[in-house]
Amino acid sequence: MFHDKVVLITGAGSGIGRHLALAAARGGATVWVTDIDHAAARVVAHECRELGAHARERALDVTDAADCECAVADVVAAEGRLDLCFNNAGIGFAGEFRDSTLDQWRRVFDVNLMGVVNVAHAAYRQMVRQGSGHLVNTASLAGLIPTPGLSAYGASKWAVVGLSHALRLEGEGLGVKVSAICPGFVESNIYSRTLVAGLKPDATRTMAPFPIVPVEGLIARVVAGLARNEALIVYPFYARVLWWVYRWMPWATRSKGLAQVRKIRREYRMAE
Ligand SMILES: NC(=O)c1ccc[n+]([C@@H]2O[C@H](COP(=O)([O-])OP(=O)(O)OC[C@H]3O[C@@H](n4cnc5c(N)ncnc54)[C@H](O)[C@@H]3O)[C@@H](O)[C@H]2O)c1
Fold first, then answer.
1. Residue 251 lies in a domain
2. Which atom of ligand 1 is nearest to the CA of 110?
3. Mean pLDDT to the nearest integer, 47-56
4. Is 136 touching ligand 1 by the criterion CB < 6 Å?
5. Burial 129-163 (b: 16+ CB within 10 A, else e)
6. Ligand 1 centre and the CA of 251: distance in Å?
7. What's CA 46's distance to the chain center, in Å?
8. Per residue in 204-230, pLDDT tens?
9. Considering its fold, how many domains does the chain have in total?
10. CB neighbours (10 Å) of residue 102?
11. Which of 87, 83, 167, 166 has the alpha carbon at shortest distance from 130?
12. Residue 111 alpha carbon, nearest atom of ligand 1
């Protein structure tokens, strides 16, 4: 998967992005570790070098479209090409729609959707010029099934899934593969950083309606899925089951969704 590949990862200073960077380093890739948090990117690039890989760090805020273009140009200037781009950077947002502000919606869409578009716009077109490459967008299980209490986050991730499906078809015949990763709840720093609207402190972690699983299993599943050029990589097993049930028996997920709404109101929503 990674041997001799040139790999660019956004949001690689933490969590899933960091583990993707380490997997790419172990696999023999040249890894460009980028993050809005330059110091975090520097630490992860150092970890990659300790594994024997050639790694570079770079500050990159994915909401800055011009800098996304520059980052891809930097990779190509230094390495000659871009083989794999993990469009991974993202932020969480939790709370009922009625408690959210439009500024919060704009921020979530700016990072989770436009950030993905900004990076894809630069990376995908470079891959088209090369006639090869794999663009990997991180969506979420929240982009496949209804997620009450996560409406802005879920909406941004449904959009990433839609973008990925369309680009995958456009990329066929141009030599560019496109996949989307749809994790359920995975261990990372996202829970402590999630923006919230009208929820009690620390709600974001404990309100998760399904188990939070270790990140290592996701990374192994992603590597296997990309090797098979899967369109959607859905992990863990409960996420695949929920996605299947929602597609074929959407009514069966309704009671679980309504139970989650009741739980949020009973245990996590702050009194008005
Ligand atoms: N952890 C989960 O349960 C889970 C589930 C589904 C999807 N995801 C998605 O996985 C991706 C990675 O999340 P994570 O769980 O590793 O979270 P994380 O908070 O551990 O890591 C996210 C990284 O993105 C960076 N980042 C945030 N805003 C950025 C910006 N504007 N530009 C560049 N970098 C930015 C952060 O600095 C951080 O290093 C996100 O897209 C997230 O939505 C996570």
1. yes
2. 31
3. 98
4. no
5. ebeebbbbbbbbbbbbbbbbbbbbbbbbbbbbbeb
6. 31
7. 22
8. 888 888 899 999 999 999 999 999 999
9. 1
10. 8
11. 83
12. 31
Question: In the predicted model, is pLDDT for residue 261 greater than 80?
Answer: yes
What atom of ligand 1 comes closest to residue 13's alpha carbon?
A: 39
- The verdict on the CB of residue 204 being under 6 Å from ligand 1 is no
Query: Is residue 92 a part of any domain in this protein?
Result: yes
Q: Quick one: tokens of 114?
A: 């436009």
Query: Does the Cβ of 190 fall within 6 Å of ligand 1?
Result: yes
**At 138, which helix (H) or strand (E)?**
strand 133-138
Q: CA angle, corner 266, sides to 139 and 141, nearest 5?
A: 10
Is 153 known to be catalytic?
yes
Asked if the structure places residue 1 within a domain, the reply is no
DSSP secondary structure letter of residue 101 = -
> What residues make up the domain containing 93?
6-268
Q: How far is the CA of 88 from the centre of ligand 1 (A)?
A: 6
Residues 133, 81, 235, 116, CA torsion sign? negative
Is the entire prediction scored with pTM above 0.90? yes
Catalytic residue among 124, 153, 191, 268: 153
User: How far is 150 from 44, CA to CA, in rounded Å?
Assistant: 29
- Supply the CATH number for residue 23's domain: 3.40.50.720
For residue 25, the model assigns a pLDDT of 98
Ligand 1 pocket, residue 138 CB under 6 Å? yes
